[in-house]
UniProtKB/TrEMBL annotation:
It catalyses: UDP-alpha-D-glucose = UDP-alpha-D-galactose. Keywords: Carbohydrate metabolism, Isomerase, NAD. Coiled coil: none annotated. Belongs to the NAD(P)-dependent epimerase/dehydratase family. This is UDP-glucose 4-epimerase.
Length: 333
């Protein structure tokens, strides 16, 4: 049965495509290449350039290809940008998802898997957050994602479609076989920025805030290897195909590292002592957010294989070095 992967030319979608193709699935990637790269799409799958929010075109694509499952990664992902330009996020996340769901209903799609975020929990505190924790999305990005979750639940109530929502914690690392990685040069993610700084692509990096109520004063996050996250998608798809009920699940490891700890691991892994300047807080950052992730383990049988910060950093760094060898590498701003 065919699968549509929106945003499959991007970071997390691209890794999930690798796993689906490795498993022999028939996959079509739909991506408008705003932040993704066509070269990053695995040769074993079909690529269609287009907008996931174009209901008419997507309905036709789904019908032509007999697609019964959608994995929806496409979206805009930069939290501070969403504060400055909320309408972009309500458009490309909420409205695009609404239109895609409509296409799914039109074409009789049975399973819809959606990329949500730990940001829906807001300022969670030091205790791990479970799926039933109160939701308190702070940024337009987080709100745009939560609205999409709500639409899915309403549509699944009214139509014959099941959904799976995965709330990702901090995704990092790269394919252990070196086939894929995070390629957007201006990505703001801590581990990528630290690896770019180690490679001299940035003169220095910043540590945003050292006065949080955490053991070393810097923010704590639950960093999850992108390959483990990709596997959770593949398992969730099979769960839904086997008749599983609609569900919402955290994807994290259930333990956190501080910004200083991460920077320390990047320095150790690379053997490079780059400058990490301590500065003020970045707007909107919660002090700590760590997943309670038992549901994915118990319901899907998900068993992470790369729960090791050093391994995550090694893979992220290897990919960053590979990107330096590409001629089409965009310049850092
Ligand atoms: N990276 C993280 O840490 C993280 C954490 C939580 C949730 N997420 C979510 O996971 C998903 C994937 O994130 P990512 O890190 O791979 O980002 P990414 O920017 O690498 O990938 C997004 C992809 O979607 C494509 N795209 C964007 N808008 C589109 C549209 N309207 N139509 C078709 N294609 C479109 C882009 O070209 C890109 O290839 C996003 O929905 C994001 O919100 C990411
Ligand atoms: O150059 C940098 C980059 C980040 N940080 C800090 O590192 C931590 C992690 O930041 P980052 O890697 O940007 O991730 P988050 O802001 O935690 O957000 C990520 O994780 C969320 C889920 O937890 C997702 O929703 C977001 O899309 C994704 O970007 C935060 O405390 C940042 O302040 C720095 O100190 N310096």
């Amino acid at each position: 049965m065919s699968i549509l992967v929106t945003g499959g030319a991007g970071y997390i979608g691209g890794h999930t495509v690798l796993q689906l193709a490795d498993a022999g699935e028939k996959v079509t990637v739909l991506d408008n290449l705003t932040t993704g790269f066509q070269w990053a799409v695995d040769d074993r799958v079909d690529f269609v350039e287009g907008n996931a929010g174009d209901t008419e075109a997507v309905t036709a694509l789904l019908q032509e290809r007999g697609i019964k499952s959608i994995l929806h990664f496409a979206g805009s992902i930069v939290v501070p940008e969403s504060v400055e330009n909320p309408l972009k996020y309500y458009h490309n996340n909420t409205a695009t998802t609404r239109n895609l769901i409509e296409a799914a209903v039109n074409a009789g799609v049975k399973h819809f898997i959606f990329s949500s975020t730990a940001a829906v929990y807001g300022m969670a505190g030091m205790e791990p957050v479970g799926e039933e924790n109160p939701l308190s999305p702070e940024s337009p990005y987080a709100k745009s994602k939560l609205m999409s979750e709500m639409m899915l639940a309403d549509v699944a109530f009214a139509h014959d479609i099941k959904y799976g929502v995965l709330r990702y914690f901090n995704v990092a690392g790269a394919d252990p076989q070196g086939r894929s990685g995070q390629s957007t040069p201006l990505a703001t993610h801590l581990i990528k920025v630290a690896c770019q700084t180690a490679l001299g692509q940035r003169d220095k990096m910043k540590i945003f805030g050292t006065d949080y109520e955490t053991p070393d004063g810097t923010c704590i996050r639950d960093y999850i290897h992108v390959t483990d996250l990709a596997e959770a998608h593949a398992l969730l798809l099979n769960y839904l195909r086997d008749g599983g009920e609609s569900t919402t699940m955290n994807c994290g490891y259930g333990r956190g590292y501080s910004v200083k700890e991460v920077v320390g691991v990047v320095k150790k892994a690379t053997g490079i002592d780059f400058v990490a300047e301590e500065t003020g807080r970045r707007a909107g950052d919660p002090a700590a957010i760590v997943a309670q992730a038992d549901r994915a383990r118990s319901v899907l049988g998900w068993e992470p294989k790369h729960d090791d910060l050093r391994e995550i950093v090694d893979h992220a760094f290897a990919w960053e070095k590979y990107l330096l060898t590409r001629n089409d590498r965009p310049e850092l701003g």
